[in-house]
Design brief:
By secondary structure, the protein is of the alpha/beta class. The protein has two domains: 176 residues, Rossmann fold (3-Layer(aba) Sandwich); 86 residues, N-(1-d-carboxylethyl)-l-norvaline Dehydrogenase, domain 2 (Orthogonal Bundle). It is 45% helix and 13% strand. It has eleven helices and eight strands. An eight-stranded mixed sheet has the order 3-2-1-4-5-6-7-8, with helices on both faces. α1 packs across α2. The longest helix has 20 residues. It is globular. The protein starts with a strand and ends in a 15-residue tail after the last helix. 42% of the residues are buried.
């Protein structure tokens, strides 16, 4: 089955990036976000990124206009009725994701595919309370989603082979390298990445070096970003929540212990690039 329209839940950085990746396949994209300011930012960001592609010669002005013409945002949930392929990209909260899918299942066909962009939560747990859980799978993009090639595709206990194949096909048509991962905490990449962030945070807590020095040394050894730059880029709210989720899932495994430094940044609203300040200032 070819899904000509992709519905995306959430107009944040991940939702916008996924929208662009889907638009560039020639599909129509409908993004749902309950907040008007989020929808306005999403439109402006997509328009800016596509404009940059025109400036670099990757798109013609006519192609940009055609792509933008296939992009729509809404704050009205009922407009999602009839969606055939949904990608959820809302904050990393199980109850929120589960409720959105449950509500959407009430207005969409029984074979609508629900793909979650969760980076650490159990797909089985997410799908268990949803009617027809066999149509739920994980589809974890990486930020920025329109540029990063990797997508983790995660079948849960109930996921059907047809659903898995449809999600893999969608990822590949977006030009992504799709990797099937087991439904375990953090999947592949975040399970590997937690020590990268956590050890850097512990070094900062123990005054081994300041954050800028640690970043500089890591970049000098071939990384495009140091750990603190990357956490600012991802957003400390997202990064902290993923760490906390893995810490809980692994029953308090010390190597996944969340950092008090990062927790204090989240509590202060210093989330990184998206708020103008984190470990660095972007104002």
């Amino acid at each position: 089955m070819t899904h000509q329209t992709v519905t995306i839940l959430g107009g944040g950085a991940m939702g916008r990036g996924i929208a662009i990746a889907a638009l560039l396949t020639g599909r129509s994209v409908l993004v749902y976000d309950a907040f008007r300011n989020s929808r306005d930012r999403a439109w402006a960001a997509v328009e800016k990124i596509l404009g940059g592609m025109v400036d670099k010669g990757k798109l013609s002005a006519e192609q940009r206009d055609r792509v933008l013409g296939a992009f729509r945002l809404t704050g009205e949930f009922h407009e999602l009725a009839g969606s055939s392929f949904v990608i959820e990209a809302v904050p990393e909260l199980m109850d929120l994701k589960r409720q959105l899918f449950t509500d959407l299942a009430g207005i969409c066909p029984a074979d609508t595919i629900f793909a979650s962009n969760t980076s650490s939560l159990s797909i089985t747990a997410l799908s268990a309370a949803i009617p027809n859980p066999e149509r739920v799978a994980g589809m974890h993009f990486f930020n920025p989603a329109h540029l990063m090639k990797l997508v983790e595709v995660i079948p849960g206990r109930f996921t059907s082979l047809e659903t898995l194949e449809a999600v893999l096909q969608m990822a590949e048509e977006m030009g992504k390298t799709a990797v099937e991962a087991k439904d375990t905490p953090g999947f592949i990449v975040n399970r590997i990445a937690r020590p990268f962030y956590n050890e850097a945070l512990r070094m900062l807590e123990e005054n081994v070096a300041d954050h800028a020095t640690i970043d500089r040394i890591v970049r000098a050894h071939g990384f495009r970003m140091g750990p603190f730059e990357l956490m600012d880029f991802i957003g400390h709210d997202v990064n902290y929540e993923v760490t906390r989720s893995l810490y809980d899932a692994f029953n308090g495994e010390p190597r996944y212990r969340p950092s008090q430094i990062q927790r204090s940044l989240v509590e202060a609203g210093l989330l990184g690039r998206k708020t103008g300040r984190g470990f660095y200032s972007y104002e």
